What we know:
Elements: E1 4-7, H1 16-23, E2 27-30, H2 39-46, E3 49-54, H3 61-65, E4 72-75, H4 85-90, E5 94-96, H5 103-118, H6 121-129, E6 148-152, H7 156-165, E7 171-175, E8 186-188, H8 191-197, E9 200-203, H9 217-222, E10 228-231, H10 240-249, E11 254-257, H11 268-272, E12 276-278, H12 287-305
Parallel strand pairs: 1-2, 1-3, 3-4, 4-5, 6-7, 6-9, 7-8, 9-10, 10-11, 11-12
Amino acid sequence: xxxxxxxxxxxxxxxxxxxxxxxxxxxxxxxxxxxxxxxxxxxxxxxxxxxxxxxxxxxxxxxxxxxxxxxxxxxxxxxxxxxxxxxxxxxxxxxxxxxxxxxxxxxxxxxxxxxxxxxxxxxxxxxxxxxxxxxxxxxxxxxxxxxxxxxxxxxxxxxxxxxxxxxxxxxxxxxxxxxxxxxxxxxxxxxxxxxxxxxxxxxxxxxxxxxxxxxxxxxxxxxxxxxxxxxxxxxxxxxxxxxxxxxxxxxxxxxxxxxxxxxxxxxxxxxxxxxxxxxxxxxxxxxxxxxxxxxxxxxxxxxxxxxxxxxxxxxxxxxxxxxxxxxxxxxxxx
Length: 334
């Protein structure tokens, strides 16, 4: 059996893509990430692998330092906050992502959360199942049309959300020092002004040291009690405790979360809130995007192990000075 490729991405196509890897002489170690996985658990399953096609596994410095045969981590998706890039580069581990495939899907999911929250679909569905038929009064739906929507982060996904929201006759605000608005009719303001003016706030920024807990108790306090918060970016951008307290106390009207500080979410308060709509970190997923992202991640692994520079390499310094034989079946690093 040849060197192993670790597969933690749950939707990996073992027949087609797995067959391609096996034909090249690699064995597969299938360990899908279906819940919380600790670095110690990851270290145990990555041991001896030359490559990994992964979900949001915690590749910290200790895991990377204890995996001398590992040459490439192919992240299915674009977020690399679960990977210590500095440690990966120091250990000669290439990290790749799969951008440009799921952006439209994330934008669609974001607007679906906004509309579902505004129309209170989750609440009404649960009411009907419980034998209630409350259409008005305290259960009266709200509307997205004519609202002010603040978009925090105006990269590709944020701009796609804005483009699609224009048909709802909304006022659009954004804040993003790196991406000034490129969509007509979008006003660029400070974060504080955006929070204070918006009926809906949608988050579309990466998780960085500067964005961790970007939306905390102070920021939530700037939002009106009728405001709705939607997060389809990363859980760590929102102080979850502060958000839950605001939802419980009526400081916010509602929230929609696709991402959480701990995934799957562990706080029982999340499950009890009627004004919180949740999805399992699948805003970027559709049948088409899953297949294409998995194919691209597999191609990145094959390229690195064949000595080629892969597409969408996050840390090119990791491959500096490597030979074309590095990591191939039968090679010195196999």
